[in-house]
Amino acid sequence: MNKETERPNRPALSLHVPEPDARPGDEVDFSHIVIPAAGSVSRPDIAAPASDTHDLVYSLLRVLDDEGAAVGPWDPRLDPETLRRMLRDMMLVRTYDDRMYRAQRQGKTSFYMKCTGEEAIAVAAAHAMDRDDIFFPTYRQQGLLVARDYPLVKMMCQVYSNTGDPLKGRQLPIMYSDRRHGFFSISGNLATQVPQAVGWAMASAIKGDSRIAAAWIGDGATAEGDFHSAVTFAGVYRAPVILNVVNNQWAISTFSGIAGAELTTFAARAVGYGIAGLRVDGNDALAVYAATAWAADRARSNLGPTLIEHFTYRVEGHSTSDDPTAYRPQGAGAKWPLGDPIARLRKHLLLIGEWDEERDAALQEQLSVEVRAAQREAETQGTLGNGHYEDVGSMFEDVFEELPWHLREQRDEALGK
Amino acid sequence: MTVRNMIEALNDAHRVMMERDDGIVVLGEDIGYFGGVFRVTAGLQKQFGTSRVFDAPIAELGIVATAIGMAAYGLRPVAEIQFADYIYPGFDQIISEAGRMRYRTAGEWPLPMVIRTPYGGGIFGGQTHSQSPEAFFAHMPGIKTVIPSNPYDAKGLLIAAIEDNDPVLFFEPKRIYNGPFEGYHDRPVTPWARHPAAEVPDGHYSVPIGKAAVAREGEAVTILAYGTMVHVALATAEAEGIDAEVLDLRTIVPVDIEAIEASVRKTGRCVIIHEATRTAGFGAELAALVQERCFYHLEAPVIRVTGYDVPYPHSMEWTYFPGPARLGPALRKALED
Known about the structure:
The structure holds two protein chains of two kinds.
Chain A: H1 80-105, H2 119-128, E1 134-136, H3 142-147, H4 152-160, H5 193-206, E2 213-218, H6 225-237, E3 241-247, E4 250-251, E5 254-255, H7 269-273, E6 276-281, H8 285-300, E7 306-311, H9 341-351, H10 357-379, H11 405-414
Parallel strand pairs in A: 1-2, 2-3, 3-7, 6-7
Antiparallel strand pairs in A: 4-5
Helix pairs in contact in A: 1-2, 1-9, 1-10, 2-8, 4-10, 5-6
Chain B: E1 2-3, H1 6-20, E2 24-28, H2 44-48, E3 53-55, H3 60-73, E4 76-80, H4 91-98, H5 101-104, E5 114-119, H6 134-138, E6 144-146, H7 151-163, E7 168-173, E8 199-200, E9 213-216, E10 221-225, H8 228-240, E11 244-248, E12 251-253, H9 257-267, E13 270-277, H10 282-294, E14 303-307, H11 317-320, H12 324-335
Parallel strand pairs in B: 2-3, 2-4, 4-5, 5-7, 6-7, 10-11, 10-13, 13-14
Antiparallel strand pairs in B: 1-8, 6-12, 9-11
Helix pairs in contact in B: 1-7, 3-4, 8-12, 9-10
């Protein structure tokens, strides 16, 4: 600092860098998290002005209380069959996740991402929306496919990039895509799907259709410009879209404070953009269902978008390439004050007398058998490095509708012609 | 048949196609009520309504991304980026999403969309209104890039682009929106009205994507050009008394390699001209193609006449702009030996 830049008597500035409460070796302490009583958040009419939701975005919408009872105005009053179906879907997602994670560790594929602890966010949302609505997911909403009965074998084939892979070995594992199941192609670039979902919803509105779109994005990724564009366009055009922010507290090793969580909630962005917002306990399947149904009804009534923050915890690592004990205390997920989504829905079903331990054990066994059988079948078509998709000619197809001369030449060269 | 300048031709392309297909929607900044800062979309909102022609926020990212979503739904969006210089906020969506969607969904989600944008210099637009970014898009898979040089081609190519089921980037040479420009900045501006390529058929027709046009037949040297540079090439050949064959590429990707090969094999000499910056500009790709495929027919090295590797200057427009003063010597050099 020379004489020209010296500023005597003025305090030096310093940069604030948000830090998580606990690092490896620390005791995890979630006591600062404000958890309102279940049923305490009011439920505005779906046609209420957006501003009527603007204090809800600082609270937490909960239906299941600590005893497992469904309480309050947001209780979706679902029939037991639907509840059992949601439980089954979540259990299947977790069983599938465990198996595919192990498959990666066994060298059968290069990469896998689990959604442990976040199963309700996808499964309950899928059940609350119509079958022909479209989803624009991230890589952590595999529950959407399971809820829509997408064949497990096909999912596994994609993960293995084998000869049965509907995507012809072109995508990284878990980057599923299926038009008939309304599951838009997963991109490795974060947040890109959110404004795309808004565009799809705008198109539906332009055409006088009745289908709506839903997008998902993580807390960390909301910092991307795509998110800002998406919410702006969604609000401006009153697009029939549900914008789900899955706040699982972590973006690889980066806690949510780096994306702004110290300042306000993610749901509160709705206030700034002037759209409806809700903040939901993402581990409460009934709350996720109820919030999604509210937003879906609102969108279908031509009243525009809703931003829903699902407050949850990423129990496992970011992916098979990540060991979270490197940046957060071990076992933090088990201490999450809002519990586990599967355990909580199970507890609710037990409480209302629509489930029992025997059936639960039988279901888990059945799902394990189902997953293992699907895996065996998928593996007959190969795994990565052992019979994976290898059709050189097809590598040049689908870049364009038709093969242009330069790709034809490159293909011939690759084929050794 | 109507005499039209390039703007009117482009406007007519929109109109003709939007009357045929109600899945075509138009969005961009100032394109709705106002009809676009260059008036290309004038009258469209009035005719087709605000659901199909509407103004977008100043967000190139959002314009491109929502257009992708609309195409995924099944519409055919024609999105305007107000100046090619502003395309970069939408670059990730174009490259990583639009260009790859058909491929990564194994053909389940094609994206029939057009992104059209005024590009190029010669207008004292400085570095934020004069750029030619076509090379970025040529380099990435899944994007077709089209550049017309006259009203007839502009309408026909835009119709072809709209009908194409792949994403098409449509660069419009803004310097020649209203009249051809040969690079003689001190001469009076001529309108399109007196040019044969201003005779634009009414109704529907299309010009094929991927096909170059021979703007001038010749034997002495091949000039590869597109956009405004086609007119510079024609004027320079005439002024120099050189029997040049001028190839108007019209499509950058997929380029018409057969036309290029046929011409260079005939003339044995090749000069490439583009406004875009020199290093790794599309001319580099063309030069590589020519020397790979026509080496034994070449009598001289391939020469590139290009913009300089500097931000596009304002006051020194005519120093930067590749005009006859630079193309002439390049042609003469190519003819040495």
